[in-house]
Specification:
Number of domains: 1
Oligomer: single chain
Strand content: 25-35%
Shape: globular
Distance between the termini: 36 Å
Order of helices and strands: HEHEEHEHEEEE
Helix content: 10-25%
CATH architecture: Alpha-Beta Complex
Length: about 160
């Protein structure tokens, strides 16, 4: 796909700005389909599809968690690591407001507001990952270790 053929989202602009090599992967988005649908549509392992979750601490401080598509986040373990009472996923409107992206199209790259990013440590052992490119139905294939060129990532062990 030539560079003229794909959407120029804030996430794509961020990847380009930080010289992060990527491959655009478009698929037919399904409401509430999640990583299961995108993995199936692209013919890839759901474990390599990384979801971008916008969450808040009990003090309403926003943060991003990057997690394998086939795993969940232990919010209790994350709260312990952060030294806060609790961490919970944001509602769609709040997540949209923090990130600048529509839920289902949330990327950790080029967010409206700079937020701390926590990533499941095992993501970095994969050769490549598929992560949202800033629009529903748009994933980008990248080397997970390249994410640190654009994001200040704290690696965590919070998968269940």
């Amino acid at each position: 796909m030539s560079k003229k053929d794909y959407p120029k989202t804030n996430a794509i602009r961020c990847l380009l700005q930080h010289d992060i090599p990527f491959e655009v992967c478009l698929y037919a988005y399904q409401e509430k389909g999640g990583t299961r649908v995108s993995a199936r549509e692209l013919g890839v392992d759901e474990h390599a599809v990384v979801k971008t979750l916008v969450m808040e601490t009990d003090a309403k401080a926003p943060l991003i968690v990057l997690m394998h598509g086939d795993r969940e986040v232990s919010t209790k373990q994350l709260a312990r690591l952060l030294g806060v009472k609790s961490v919970a996923p944001c509602g769609p409107k709040t997540a949209d407001r923090h990130s600048g992206y529509q839920v289902g199209g949330t990327s950790p790259f080029g967010t409206r507001r700079t937020m701390p990013v926590y990533a499941e440590q095992s993501i970095f052992a994969l050769d490549c990952i598929y992560i949202n490119g800033g629009r529903r139905g748009l994933l980008v294939r990248i080397d997970p270790n390249d994410m640190t060129k654009a994001l200040n990532i704290t690696k965590v062990l919070v998968a269940v």
